[in-house]
TrEMBL record:
Protein name (record): Uncharacterized protein
InterPro entries attached to this UniProt entry: Lysozyme-like_dom_sf
Superkingdom of origin organism: Bacteria
Cited Gene3D superfamilies: 1.10.530.10
Amino acid sequence: MQLTWWSNYATMSVALKRGLDLLLHPEQVKTPRVSYEIMSYGVRTGFGFANGHKFNTYFRGEFCDYINARKMVNGLDHADEIAEIAQKLEYILNKSTLS
């Protein structure tokens, strides 16, 4: 997980009820548990790195919009390329669960 600017470390830390822990100890963001907490909270709420965009806007039921989901992180920068990679990964994951 990547957070940029000290203010993002502080606001995400407070949002996760960690006080200023992530600001004072930013290396914690690299741990799997904290990285998951940040990613999960962000995509569910649209808070922080997700720029106000929520996961369920782009993925629900049979609806899947990999291109616009890119807005959660960096606008539409390289959205087509990333969508293609996501589709390949989805295909691989689906094939692995069929056996």
